[in-house]
Amino acid sequence: MSRPAKVIIDLSALQHNLHIAQQCQSGRNIVAVLKANAYGHGAIEVAQSLQAHVSKFAVSSIEEAIQLREAGIEKSILLLEGCFNSSELHLCQQQHFEIVVHNTKQIDDLIAAELSAPLAVWVKVDTGMHRLGLSVDDAREQILRLHLHSNIAQPIVLMTHMASADLLEEEYTSAQYAQFIKLKQDVLDHMGDVLTSIENSGTMLGWPNIVSDMCRPGIMLYGLSPFSQPHNVSDQLRPVMSLVSEVIAIRTIEAGEKVGYGSTWTAHRRTRIATVAIGYGDGYPRNAKNGTPVLVNGERAELAGRVSMDMLTVDITDLGEVAIGDSVELWGQNLNANEVASYADTIGYELVTRMPIRVPKHYLP
Ligand SMILES: *Cc1c(COP(=O)(O)O)cnc(C)c1O
Protein backbone atom coordinates (compact mmCIF):
# COMPACT_ATOMS: atom_id res chain seq x y z
CA MET A 1 0.00 0.00 0.00
CA SER A 2 1.31 3.45 -0.80
CA ARG A 3 0.12 6.88 0.19
CA PRO A 4 -2.63 7.86 -2.24
CA ALA A 5 -1.55 11.51 -2.74
CA LYS A 6 -0.32 11.87 -6.30
CA VAL A 7 -0.14 14.13 -9.30
CA ILE A 8 -1.50 12.96 -12.62
CA ILE A 9 0.01 14.62 -15.67
CA ASP A 10 -2.14 14.18 -18.75
CA LEU A 11 0.12 14.56 -21.78
CA SER A 12 -2.84 14.43 -24.18
CA ALA A 13 -4.11 17.62 -22.52
CA LEU A 14 -0.66 19.15 -23.08
CA GLN A 15 -0.92 18.32 -26.80
CA HIS A 16 -4.45 19.73 -26.93
CA ASN A 17 -3.21 23.00 -25.41
CA LEU A 18 -0.28 23.11 -27.80
CA HIS A 19 -2.77 22.93 -30.69
CA ILE A 20 -4.60 25.92 -29.27
CA ALA A 21 -1.28 27.78 -28.98
CA GLN A 22 -0.49 26.90 -32.59
CA GLN A 23 -3.87 28.22 -33.70
CA CYS A 24 -3.32 31.49 -31.81
CA GLN A 25 -0.01 31.86 -33.56
CA SER A 26 -1.05 30.60 -36.97
CA GLY A 27 2.23 28.92 -37.80
CA ARG A 28 4.72 31.22 -36.08
CA ASN A 29 7.46 29.67 -34.01
CA ILE A 30 6.68 28.43 -30.54
CA VAL A 31 9.25 28.57 -27.77
CA ALA A 32 7.73 26.39 -25.04
CA VAL A 33 8.55 27.71 -21.57
CA LEU A 34 9.72 24.89 -19.27
CA LYS A 35 11.20 26.89 -16.40
CA ALA A 36 10.71 25.75 -12.78
CA ASN A 37 10.42 22.09 -13.77
CA ALA A 38 7.82 22.96 -16.42
CA TYR A 39 5.70 24.81 -13.88
CA GLY A 40 5.82 21.75 -11.62
CA HIS A 41 4.79 19.29 -14.37
CA GLY A 42 8.23 17.68 -14.89
CA ALA A 43 10.49 19.42 -17.42
CA ILE A 44 11.94 16.28 -18.97
CA GLU A 45 8.62 14.55 -19.60
CA VAL A 46 7.02 17.75 -20.89
CA ALA A 47 10.02 18.40 -23.18
CA GLN A 48 9.86 14.84 -24.54
CA SER A 49 6.18 15.24 -25.28
CA LEU A 50 6.57 18.65 -26.99
CA GLN A 51 9.92 18.42 -28.73
CA ALA A 52 8.66 17.25 -32.12
CA HIS A 53 6.15 20.12 -32.29
CA VAL A 54 7.87 23.30 -31.09
CA SER A 55 10.91 25.26 -32.29
CA LYS A 56 12.70 25.79 -29.01
CA PHE A 57 12.45 25.48 -25.27
CA ALA A 58 13.01 28.22 -22.68
CA VAL A 59 14.17 27.80 -19.08
CA SER A 60 15.45 30.21 -16.48
CA SER A 61 18.98 28.97 -15.86
CA ILE A 62 21.82 26.91 -17.25
CA GLU A 63 21.16 24.24 -14.59
CA GLU A 64 17.65 23.72 -15.93
CA ALA A 65 18.98 23.59 -19.49
CA ILE A 66 21.66 21.03 -18.62
CA GLN A 67 19.07 18.82 -16.97
CA LEU A 68 17.23 18.69 -20.31
CA ARG A 69 20.42 17.96 -22.30
CA GLU A 70 21.35 15.16 -19.91
CA ALA A 71 17.93 13.64 -20.55
CA GLY A 72 18.68 13.62 -24.29
CA ILE A 73 16.69 16.70 -25.35
CA GLU A 74 18.48 18.12 -28.41
CA LYS A 75 16.37 21.18 -29.23
CA SER A 76 17.72 24.68 -28.85
CA ILE A 77 17.17 25.94 -25.32
CA LEU A 78 16.89 29.62 -24.42
CA LEU A 79 18.09 30.84 -21.02
CA LEU A 80 15.50 33.50 -20.15
CA GLU A 81 17.75 35.36 -17.73
CA GLY A 82 20.92 34.64 -19.67
CA CYS A 83 24.17 33.76 -17.92
CA PHE A 84 24.46 34.60 -14.26
CA ASN A 85 28.24 34.44 -14.65
CA SER A 86 30.45 34.86 -17.72
CA SER A 87 32.06 31.48 -17.04
CA GLU A 88 28.83 29.91 -18.35
CA LEU A 89 29.31 31.28 -21.87
CA HIS A 90 31.51 28.45 -23.15
CA LEU A 91 29.08 25.84 -21.96
CA CYS A 92 26.26 27.71 -23.67
CA GLN A 93 28.16 27.57 -26.90
CA GLN A 94 29.01 23.85 -26.60
CA GLN A 95 25.47 22.89 -25.63
CA HIS A 96 23.63 25.10 -28.13
CA PHE A 97 21.96 27.18 -25.49
CA GLU A 98 20.65 30.56 -26.64
CA ILE A 99 21.07 33.41 -24.21
CA VAL A 100 19.14 36.49 -23.21
CA VAL A 101 21.22 39.57 -22.50
CA HIS A 102 19.31 42.00 -20.32
CA ASN A 103 22.04 44.30 -18.97
CA THR A 104 25.24 45.88 -20.24
CA LYS A 105 27.42 43.72 -17.98
CA GLN A 106 26.19 40.61 -19.80
CA ILE A 107 26.86 42.30 -23.13
CA ASP A 108 30.39 43.36 -22.09
CA ASP A 109 31.12 39.77 -21.01
CA LEU A 110 29.77 38.37 -24.25
CA ILE A 111 31.87 40.71 -26.37
CA ALA A 112 34.99 40.02 -24.31
CA ALA A 113 34.62 36.23 -24.35
CA GLU A 114 36.82 34.10 -26.57
CA LEU A 115 34.30 31.91 -28.31
CA SER A 116 35.05 29.58 -31.19
CA ALA A 117 31.58 29.98 -32.68
CA PRO A 118 28.84 32.57 -32.40
CA LEU A 119 26.05 32.34 -29.83
CA ALA A 120 22.39 33.03 -30.53
CA VAL A 121 21.56 36.15 -28.52
CA TRP A 122 18.23 37.62 -27.47
CA VAL A 123 18.39 41.25 -26.40
CA LYS A 124 15.79 41.92 -23.75
CA VAL A 125 14.21 45.34 -23.84
CA ASP A 126 12.30 46.89 -20.96
CA THR A 127 9.20 48.45 -22.51
CA GLY A 128 7.37 48.87 -19.19
CA MET A 129 7.63 45.78 -17.01
CA HIS A 130 10.64 47.33 -15.21
CA ARG A 131 12.03 44.02 -14.05
CA LEU A 132 14.65 42.99 -16.62
CA GLY A 133 15.92 44.50 -19.82
CA LEU A 134 17.69 47.44 -21.37
CA SER A 135 15.81 50.69 -21.74
CA VAL A 136 14.73 51.38 -25.31
CA ASP A 137 17.51 53.97 -25.72
CA ASP A 138 20.21 51.71 -24.27
CA ALA A 139 19.00 48.85 -26.44
CA ARG A 140 19.41 50.95 -29.58
CA GLU A 141 23.01 51.67 -28.61
CA GLN A 142 23.96 48.19 -27.40
CA ILE A 143 22.52 46.46 -30.44
CA LEU A 144 24.99 48.31 -32.61
CA ARG A 145 27.82 46.75 -30.55
CA LEU A 146 26.38 43.29 -31.11
CA HIS A 147 25.72 43.74 -34.80
CA LEU A 148 28.19 41.73 -36.90
CA HIS A 149 30.32 40.82 -33.87
CA SER A 150 31.92 37.41 -34.33
CA ASN A 151 30.66 36.10 -30.97
CA ILE A 152 27.05 36.75 -31.93
CA ALA A 153 24.93 34.87 -34.42
CA GLN A 154 22.97 37.13 -36.77
CA PRO A 155 20.24 38.16 -36.84
CA ILE A 156 19.87 38.88 -33.16
CA VAL A 157 16.50 38.50 -31.49
CA LEU A 158 14.82 41.52 -29.95
CA MET A 159 12.51 40.53 -27.11
CA THR A 160 10.29 42.13 -24.55
CA HIS A 161 7.86 40.96 -21.87
CA MET A 162 4.36 42.27 -21.22
CA ALA A 163 3.43 43.37 -17.71
CA SER A 164 -0.36 43.32 -17.94
CA ALA A 165 -1.41 41.17 -20.89
CA ASP A 166 -3.87 39.36 -18.61
CA LEU A 167 -5.80 42.61 -18.14
CA LEU A 168 -7.66 42.87 -21.41
CA GLU A 169 -8.85 46.44 -20.98
CA GLU A 170 -5.43 47.85 -20.08
CA GLU A 171 -3.86 50.34 -22.44
CA TYR A 172 -0.48 49.41 -20.95
CA THR A 173 0.01 46.45 -23.28
CA SER A 174 -0.64 48.54 -26.40
CA ALA A 175 1.78 51.19 -25.15
CA GLN A 176 4.50 48.59 -24.56
CA TYR A 177 3.90 47.16 -28.01
CA ALA A 178 4.10 50.58 -29.66
CA GLN A 179 7.50 51.25 -28.05
CA PHE A 180 8.77 47.87 -29.13
CA ILE A 181 7.65 48.29 -32.74
CA LYS A 182 9.35 51.66 -32.94
CA LEU A 183 12.61 50.19 -31.67
CA LYS A 184 12.30 47.26 -34.06
CA GLN A 185 11.94 49.68 -36.98
CA ASP A 186 15.04 51.61 -35.88
CA VAL A 187 17.01 48.40 -35.64
CA LEU A 188 15.82 47.26 -39.03
CA ASP A 189 16.86 50.59 -40.54
CA HIS A 190 20.37 50.23 -39.12
CA MET A 191 20.99 46.51 -39.38
CA GLY A 192 18.70 45.24 -42.09
CA ASP A 193 17.58 42.17 -40.21
CA VAL A 194 16.25 41.29 -36.76
CA LEU A 195 13.94 38.69 -35.26
CA THR A 196 11.38 39.50 -32.55
CA SER A 197 9.78 37.74 -29.58
CA ILE A 198 7.01 39.20 -27.47
CA GLU A 199 4.09 36.99 -26.54
CA ASN A 200 3.54 35.13 -23.28
CA SER A 201 0.27 33.22 -22.87
CA GLY A 202 -1.79 36.27 -21.94
CA THR A 203 -0.60 38.14 -25.03
CA MET A 204 -1.16 35.18 -27.34
CA LEU A 205 -4.68 34.59 -26.08
CA GLY A 206 -5.85 38.11 -25.42
CA TRP A 207 -4.02 40.32 -27.89
CA PRO A 208 -4.29 38.79 -31.37
CA ASN A 209 -2.97 41.98 -32.99
CA ILE A 210 0.36 41.64 -31.21
CA VAL A 211 2.57 39.37 -33.27
CA SER A 212 6.25 38.55 -33.33
CA ASP A 213 8.44 35.86 -34.89
CA MET A 214 8.67 33.69 -31.76
CA CYS A 215 6.10 33.46 -29.01
CA ARG A 216 6.81 32.13 -25.53
CA PRO A 217 3.77 30.36 -24.08
CA GLY A 218 4.02 28.93 -20.58
CA ILE A 219 0.89 28.60 -18.49
CA MET A 220 -1.48 28.00 -21.41
CA LEU A 221 0.43 24.85 -22.38
CA TYR A 222 -0.29 23.54 -18.90
CA GLY A 223 -3.97 24.25 -19.43
CA LEU A 224 -4.53 27.17 -17.09
CA SER A 225 -5.95 30.47 -18.21
CA PRO A 226 -3.84 33.55 -17.50
CA PHE A 227 -7.08 35.54 -17.14
CA SER A 228 -9.20 35.91 -14.03
CA GLN A 229 -12.31 36.40 -16.21
CA PRO A 230 -13.96 33.86 -18.53
CA HIS A 231 -12.38 33.99 -21.98
CA ASN A 232 -13.59 32.14 -25.07
CA VAL A 233 -10.23 30.64 -26.12
CA SER A 234 -8.71 30.11 -22.67
CA ASP A 235 -11.81 28.28 -21.55
CA GLN A 236 -11.00 25.57 -24.13
CA LEU A 237 -7.66 24.77 -22.48
CA ARG A 238 -7.48 21.48 -20.59
CA PRO A 239 -5.61 21.37 -17.25
CA VAL A 240 -2.62 19.05 -17.55
CA MET A 241 -2.02 18.52 -13.82
CA SER A 242 -4.51 16.91 -11.46
CA LEU A 243 -3.66 16.66 -7.77
CA VAL A 244 -5.55 13.71 -6.32
CA SER A 245 -5.75 11.61 -3.19
CA GLU A 246 -8.22 9.51 -1.20
CA VAL A 247 -10.44 9.67 1.84
CA ILE A 248 -8.68 7.93 4.75
CA ALA A 249 -11.17 8.55 7.59
CA ILE A 250 -14.80 9.58 8.07
CA ARG A 251 -16.54 10.73 11.25
CA THR A 252 -19.73 12.44 12.32
CA ILE A 253 -19.54 15.38 14.73
CA GLU A 254 -22.30 17.28 16.52
CA ALA A 255 -23.31 20.91 15.99
CA GLY A 256 -20.94 23.21 17.88
CA GLU A 257 -17.93 20.90 17.59
CA LYS A 258 -14.77 22.18 15.94
CA VAL A 259 -12.36 20.76 13.38
CA GLY A 260 -8.60 20.98 12.95
CA TYR A 261 -5.67 22.99 14.31
CA GLY A 262 -6.70 26.21 15.95
CA SER A 263 -10.36 25.07 15.89
CA THR A 264 -11.10 27.52 13.09
CA TRP A 265 -14.16 25.67 11.77
CA THR A 266 -17.31 25.05 13.79
CA ALA A 267 -20.09 22.66 12.76
CA HIS A 268 -23.42 24.49 12.65
CA ARG A 269 -25.30 21.17 12.33
CA ARG A 270 -24.61 17.46 12.70
CA THR A 271 -21.78 17.08 10.17
CA ARG A 272 -19.91 14.32 8.39
CA ILE A 273 -16.23 15.07 8.05
CA ALA A 274 -13.94 13.22 5.62
CA THR A 275 -10.19 13.30 6.18
CA VAL A 276 -8.12 13.30 2.99
CA ALA A 277 -4.48 12.24 2.71
CA ILE A 278 -3.06 15.46 1.31
CA GLY A 279 -1.76 18.63 2.92
CA TYR A 280 0.61 21.54 2.64
CA GLY A 281 3.53 19.10 2.51
CA ASP A 282 2.07 18.05 -0.85
CA GLY A 283 1.79 21.53 -2.32
CA TYR A 284 -1.79 22.18 -1.20
CA PRO A 285 -1.90 25.76 0.10
CA ARG A 286 -2.14 25.97 3.89
CA ASN A 287 -3.91 29.30 3.64
CA ALA A 288 -6.83 27.84 1.63
CA LYS A 289 -9.91 29.19 3.39
CA ASN A 290 -12.76 27.26 4.93
CA GLY A 291 -15.17 26.65 2.05
CA THR A 292 -12.51 26.02 -0.61
CA PRO A 293 -14.00 23.51 -3.07
CA VAL A 294 -12.72 19.90 -2.98
CA LEU A 295 -14.10 17.15 -5.24
CA VAL A 296 -14.99 13.93 -3.43
CA ASN A 297 -16.12 11.22 -5.86
CA GLY A 298 -16.49 14.01 -8.39
CA GLU A 299 -18.94 15.94 -6.16
CA ARG A 300 -18.15 19.35 -4.76
CA ALA A 301 -17.55 19.51 -1.03
CA GLU A 302 -16.01 22.26 1.10
CA LEU A 303 -12.77 22.42 3.04
CA ALA A 304 -13.56 22.53 6.77
CA GLY A 305 -10.75 23.45 9.14
CA ARG A 306 -7.10 24.24 8.66
CA VAL A 307 -4.97 22.33 6.20
CA SER A 308 -2.34 20.17 8.00
CA MET A 309 0.99 18.99 6.58
CA ASP A 310 -0.29 15.62 5.39
CA MET A 311 -4.07 15.83 5.70
CA LEU A 312 -7.06 18.05 5.27
CA THR A 313 -10.71 17.79 6.30
CA VAL A 314 -13.83 18.24 4.20
CA ASP A 315 -17.51 18.65 5.01
CA ILE A 316 -19.28 15.83 3.16
CA THR A 317 -22.66 16.08 4.91
CA ASP A 318 -24.53 16.93 1.71
CA LEU A 319 -22.78 14.38 -0.48
CA GLY A 320 -24.00 10.90 -1.39
CA GLU A 321 -22.40 7.79 0.06
CA VAL A 322 -18.69 8.35 0.82
CA ALA A 323 -16.36 5.56 1.98
CA ILE A 324 -12.73 5.22 2.99
CA GLY A 325 -10.66 4.90 -0.17
CA ASP A 326 -12.95 7.10 -2.26
CA SER A 327 -11.26 9.42 -4.71
CA VAL A 328 -10.58 13.09 -4.11
CA GLU A 329 -9.44 15.74 -6.60
CA LEU A 330 -7.87 18.87 -5.10
CA TRP A 331 -7.48 20.53 -8.49
CA GLY A 332 -7.15 19.42 -12.06
CA GLN A 333 -9.36 18.39 -14.94
CA ASN A 334 -12.62 18.73 -13.01
CA LEU A 335 -11.76 21.55 -10.59
CA ASN A 336 -9.71 24.36 -12.03
CA ALA A 337 -6.53 25.24 -10.12
CA ASN A 338 -7.28 28.93 -10.69
CA GLU A 339 -10.54 28.56 -8.78
CA VAL A 340 -8.82 26.82 -5.86
CA ALA A 341 -6.09 29.46 -5.96
CA SER A 342 -8.66 32.23 -5.58
CA TYR A 343 -9.54 30.81 -2.13
CA ALA A 344 -5.86 30.97 -1.12
CA ASP A 345 -5.00 34.48 -2.33
CA THR A 346 -2.83 33.22 -5.14
CA ILE A 347 -2.98 32.13 -8.78
CA GLY A 348 -2.98 28.73 -10.46
CA TYR A 349 0.61 29.34 -11.67
CA GLU A 350 1.85 29.16 -8.08
CA LEU A 351 -0.17 26.12 -7.06
CA VAL A 352 1.12 23.93 -9.89
CA THR A 353 4.69 25.27 -9.85
CA ARG A 354 5.41 24.66 -6.20
CA MET A 355 4.49 20.97 -6.35
CA PRO A 356 7.04 19.26 -4.08
CA ILE A 357 9.11 16.23 -5.04
CA ARG A 358 7.45 14.01 -2.46
CA VAL A 359 4.24 13.81 -4.48
CA PRO A 360 4.74 11.08 -7.11
CA LYS A 361 3.89 12.01 -10.69
CA HIS A 362 2.02 9.62 -12.97
CA TYR A 363 2.13 10.42 -16.67
CA LEU A 364 -0.79 9.55 -18.91
CA PRO A 365 0.08 9.36 -22.63
C1 LIG B 1 7.63 32.77 -17.74
C2 LIG B 1 7.84 33.56 -18.97
C3 LIG B 1 7.00 33.40 -20.09
C4 LIG B 1 5.77 32.54 -20.06
O1 LIG B 1 4.74 33.22 -19.39
P1 LIG B 1 3.26 32.62 -19.26
O2 LIG B 1 2.49 33.71 -18.63
O3 LIG B 1 3.37 31.43 -18.37
O4 LIG B 1 2.82 32.27 -20.63
C5 LIG B 1 7.32 34.09 -21.24
N1 LIG B 1 8.41 34.91 -21.29
C6 LIG B 1 9.21 35.10 -20.23
C7 LIG B 1 10.36 36.03 -20.34
C8 LIG B 1 8.95 34.44 -19.04
O5 LIG B 1 9.75 34.65 -17.98
In terms of quaternary structure, what is this? Answer: single chain
Report Rg.
24 Å
Count of helix runs: 11
Give the proportion of residues in helices. Answer: 25-40%
- Into which percentage range does the β-strand content fall? 15-25%
Decide which structural class fits the backbone.
alpha/beta
Number of strands: 18
Largest sheet composition? 8 strands, parallel
Low-confidence blocks of residues: none
Give the CA-CA distance, first to last residue. Answer: 24 Å
Q: Overall 3D geometry?
A: elongated
Bound molecules: pyridoxal-5'-phosphate
Order of helices and strands: EHEHHEHEHEHEHEHEHEEEEEEEEEHHE
Average pLDDT level? 96
* Biggest β-sheet: strands ordered side by side in the sheet: 8-7-6-5-4-3-2-9
Describe the structure.
This protein is of the alpha/beta class and 365 residues long. 28% of the residues lie in helices and 22% in strands. The protein is built from 11 helices and 18 strands. The protein has helices spanning 11-25, 35-39, 43-50, 62-70, 89-95, 104-112, 136-146, 172-191, 201-206, 337-342, 348-353, and strands at residues 6-10, 29-33, 56-59, 76-79, 97-101, 121-125, 157-160, 195-197, 214-215, 241-253, 258-259, 265-266, 271-276, 293-296, 299-303, 312-315, 327-331, 361-364. Strands 8-7-6-5-4-3-2-9 form an 8-stranded parallel beta sheet. Strands 10-13-16-15-14-17 form a 6-stranded antiparallel β-barrel. Helix 7 packs parallel to helix 8. The protein is elongated and about 75 Å long. The protein starts with 5 loop residues before the first strand and ends with a strand. The protein binds pyridoxal-5'-phosphate (PLP). Residues 33, 35, 80, 161, 200-202, 216-220, 226 line the site of pyridoxal-5'-phosphate (PLP).
